[in-house]
Amino acid sequence: MAEIDRILRPQGTFIIRDDMETLGEVEKMVKSMKWKVKMTQSKDNEGLLSIEKSWWRPEETETIKSAIA
Question: pTM score, two decimals?
Answer without folding.
Answer: 0.70
